[in-house]
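Integral membrane protein: structure, please.
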Amino acid sequence: MLRHEFQPGRLVAGAFLTLAAVLYAGDAGGAWETPWFVVIPVVTGGLCLAGAVALLAGRIRRRRARGSRDTASDTVA
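Here you go.
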C-alpha cells in the first residue's frame, strides 16, 4: 500500500530544481563555468513542464476515477 499518491509534476519540478542546484554547485566548486543567466530558463522551463505534467496527470486520474465509477454502477445494477 502506498503512503501517498504519486505526483509526477512534483517529480519533474524537483528534478529541474536539482539540476539548477548542481549547475550552481559545479560552478561554485570550480568544476565548470556557468553563466548566471543559464539557470533562469532551466528553472522556468522545468516549472512550466511540471505544470503541464501535473495537469495531464490530474486529467488522467479524473478520467480513470470516472470510468471505474461508471463500470462499477453498471455491474451492481
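Notes: The chain has a mean pLDDT of 90.
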